[in-house]
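U., I forgot to send this yesterday:
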Amino acid sequence: MGLFGKKEAAKAVTAESVLAALADVMDPELGKDLVTLNMIRNVAVSDGAVSLDLVLTTPACPKKAEIQAAVEAAVRAIPGVSGVDVRVSSDVRAAKDPMEGRRPVPGVRNILAVASGKGGVGKSTLSVNIAVALQRAGARVGLLDADIYGPSVPTLLSLKGHQLEGEDGMILPAEHDGMKVLSIGFMLEDDSPVIWRGPMLIKALEQFLHGTKWGELDYLVIDLPPGTGDVQLSLVQMTPVAGAIVVTTPQDLALIDVKKAVRMFEKVGVPILGVIENMSYFLCPHCDGRSEIFGHGGAEEACRQMGLRFLGEVPLQMELRQASDEGRPLVSRSPDAPASRAIEKAASEAAAALAVLEAI
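Result:
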């Protein structure tokens, strides 16, 4: 109380006082405060009304609502604040390359490799749906089908028969709902086998990466061939790969191979963003009953043993097969399907894991 019993006037709210309050709000994934991470921008105050930009490190941030709520609460707690307007956006940071001599892909901030230790685990289906999930979250995304011996992306995206075009000596990728797409399948006649030796494969991969007009992308998702062969090794040697997602199934044989894939990426310095278990269980379309055909919990246990992030279980669902046959990714065709929700969660957690690496 001041003289004559009158209440002292509250201090005027300033941009500095807002930033000071938000310096106590931590990003739960990155473990640092939002101000230090430069996630609070353009703070403006007018007659107690505060507006600011909350700039996340990925549009697929799984903690988006939690962080926004914490920011609003911290600002409202400042004496004199009459209102809060938080504008949420994202600014995906470019991956750091710990090795010299590798050519980045112009305009591409992060390359995400999707791999598997063996074939038949649904890697390509998940690659497509992960890319679409990131795009649906608001990211600029491209998809490169580098599964040289079994390119299935043209079928999964209804792009079979697409004829490649060029401009200024560069390949122009196809587009699917605004997502840039390139596949070795665009260079082949239907059902033609790829009978290429190593040097030709590497030359094709180089052209797909550095001879293509990808434009400005937050993420270029690359669907790798199964296994640990020339294409995988050459990719990480020629361009910086921000991180890898490994796809497996619950079977013991698949888990043995996933460990080989993980070790390969570790040896060449590519961070593992996590492991997805596909076909974790069959979801009956009639009764929603769950049948664990291939066993249960194997991938999660393998992640625990290897110290890796488990990105979740994707069920074997009729809708996923139907969407793939129709050339319509499930996450856009049926976003509320259990498999869609599982894939979107895995994509957002992988993007968050990448953001953590880039903040270190």
